[in-house]
Amino acid sequence: MAKKTYTPEENKVLKSMFLNSHLVFTNFNMTKMEANGFTMTMSPAIESIYGDDMEGKKAAYARHQAFFNTHAVAFDFIAGICYAMEKDVKAGRLNGETIDAIKASLMGPTAGMFDSIFFNCLRVIGAGIGIGLCSQGNILGSIIFIILYGLSQSLLKWILLKLGYDLGATFIDSVFNSGLMDVATRCASILGLMMVGAMTATTVNVPLNWTINVGKTSVVVLDLFEAIYPGILSVGIVLLMMALIKKGKKPITLIVGLIVAGLLGAFLHIF
């Protein structure tokens, strides 16, 4: 696809949308999720497209107040598509219901794909590197995490905003009909799970120091577990925490519980 040349007005609108999109969670609520943030992001486009057409503005603002929720990066891609489509609505080539349908069809698949990439992959990699450096007193740990997890999102938001605007409604036909979205979502999910597994193996450590004496024989309990499956205690702790969180236990309660268990184990010379 040839590089598109934007008019000064389009550049101005895209930059304003990009900046506004970073404030999406300041208006987050459990009723409409990101609807307020999406409306605020679309505001520069709506004002530019509809101008003095007050009825068109009202309809556009009301349209984007519908329930909406996706990953913060995919958010900009969908906003870019909606910017292009609002122009088509103004020109009479589309109706507003089409934009509603496009948003509804995109927010689920893109959320799953980008959650896997950023939450389960980049965040895990960034945290693993950052925690390792910070534990050694190196401030680069915090900086690297911000770059890998924060700055990368902001950069990709800008790229995808423009890409969404360039593609417009044609994206739906080309990606969904070809099955590419399902493949990309599945691949991202698999990659995310792999990163979580790698993070568990390298950062979760259960320093079991328990030896059972049976007559003249000493049995190291950790060696028994490692013989069954290397790292089984680390995996077990992670799965236990996940199960408890799913049952509604608060993370802070689990953290305190682990600290207490660690201190008690150290006192009893188990750890």
Structure, briefly:
This protein is mainly α. It is built from eleven helices and two strands, in the order ααααααααββααα.
Radius of gyration: 25 Å
Instruction: Let me know the largest β-sheet.
Output: 2 strands, antiparallel
Total number of distinct structural domains? 2
Overall, the morphology is elongated
Sequence of secondary-structure elements: HHHHHHHHEEHHH
Instruction: Give the CA-CA distance, first to last residue.
Output: 60 Å
- The share of residues in extended strands comes to under 5%
Order of strands, widest sheet = 1-2
User: Which structural class do you get from the secondary structure elements?
Assistant: mainly alpha
Q: What does this molecule look like?
A:
The protein is built from eleven helices and two strands. By secondary structure, it is an all-alpha fold. It folds into two domains: 8-201, no CATH class; 204-267, no CATH class. The protein has a two-stranded antiparallel ribbon with strand order 1-2. The longest helix has 39 residues, at 96-134. It starts with 7 loop residues before the first helix and ends with a helix.
